[in-house]
């Protein structure tokens, strides 16, 4: 008899937690379903456009590539409407950077893009790029510049590109005899 009483007390002690947990699962599962059903009934809701834009920003994507000739032209004619951004770390940029480029290390890029414009300028020394401005990212070999372009795109920047050969290509072409003409 005592054994049965102990089992009932133990099962009652566990039951509310299990019920709450199951209720949360149902709420989460039903919440997603409910949202989808509501949107399917009335696709003209203003929230749908926001959700679609969010899906586009979060989808897999590869930045368009630019080559040496484009970057060379940018470095010779800098503009306030376009940015050439080096995403290498500070210890790597000691080797040099492309003329007219600014630095924004990949390790802190996402955090920096969320800063207010004044805080961004105070931290990096130049104006924060606007979402519509053209940006070309480069790194050492081209891998991190693709990641940087993806991060920028996911943060609302629409006109981002990646320099295909990046720093290694730049140095090779600048040191070649044909580029010194």
Q: How does this structure look, described?
A:
By secondary structure, the chain is α/β, with parallel strands linked by helices. It has two domains: 2-58; 65-180, Rhodanese-like domain (Oxidized Rhodanese, domain 1). The protein has helices spanning 2-41, 46-58, 68-76, 90-93, 109-113, 117-124, 143-154, 166-175; strands spanning 65-66, 82-86, 102-103, 134-138, 160-163. It is globular.
What's a concise summary of this model?
By secondary structure, this protein is of the alpha/beta class.
List keywords for this structure.
Oxidized Rhodanese, domain 1; alpha/beta; Rhodanese-like protein; 181 residues; Rhodanese-like_dom_sf
Describe the SSE topology.
Elements lengths: L1 H40 L4 H13 L6 E2 L1 H9 L5 E5 L3 H4 L8 E2 L5 H5 L3 H8 L9 E5 L4 H12 L5 E4 L2 H10 L6
Parallel strand pairs: 1-5, 2-3, 2-4, 4-5
Protein name: Rhodanese-like protein
Pfam family, one: Rhodanese
GO molecular function: thiosulfate-cyanide sulfurtransferase activity
Order of helices and strands: HHEHEHEHHEHEH
Largest beta sheet: strand ordering:
1-5-4-2-3
Helix content: 55-70%
Largest sheet features = 5 strands, parallel
- Overall domain count: 2
Structural class of the helix and strand makeup? Answer: alpha/beta
CATH fold node name of the largest domain: Oxidized Rhodanese, domain 1
Instruction: Please state the average pLDDT score.
Output: 78
pLDDT under 50 segments (min length 5)?
A: 14-40
CATH superfamily grouping of the largest domain: Rhodanese-like domain
Report the CATH C-level class of the largest domain: Alpha Beta
Q: Into which percentage range does the β-strand content fall?
A: 5-15%
Individual helix count: 8
Instruction: Report, as a whole number of angstroms, the end-to-end distance.
Output: 100 Å
Q: Sum up the overall morphology in one term.
A: globular
Number of strand elements: 5
Chain oligomer state = single chain
Radius of gyration: 26 Å
Organism: Sistotremastrum niveocremeum HHB9708
Protein name: Rhodanese-like protein
GO molecular function: thiosulfate-cyanide sulfurtransferase activity
Pfam families: Rhodanese
């Amino acid at each position: 008899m005592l054994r049965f009483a102990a089992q009932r007390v133990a099962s009652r002690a566990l039951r509310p937690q299990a019920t709450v947990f199951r209720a949360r699962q149902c709420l989460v599962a039903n919440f997603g379903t409910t949202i989808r059903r509501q949107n399917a009934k009335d696709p003209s809701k203003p929230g749908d456009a926001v959700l679609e834009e969010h899906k586009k920003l979060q989808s897999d994507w590869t930045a368009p590539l630019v080559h040496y000739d484009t970057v060379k032209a940018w470095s010779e004619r800098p503009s306030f409407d376009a940015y050439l951004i080096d995403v290498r770390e500070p210890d790597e940029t000691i080797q040099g950077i492309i003329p007219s480029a600014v630095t924004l290390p990949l390790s802190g890029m996402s955090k920096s893009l969320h800063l207010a414009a004044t805080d961004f300028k105070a931290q990096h020394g130049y104006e924060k790029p606007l979402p519509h401005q053209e940006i070309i990212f480069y790194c050492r070999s081209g891998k991190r510049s693709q990641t940087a372009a993806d991060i920028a795109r996911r943060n609302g920047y629409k006109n981002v590109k990646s320099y295909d050969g990046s720093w290694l290509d730049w140095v090779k072409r600048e040191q070649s005899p044909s580029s010194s003409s």
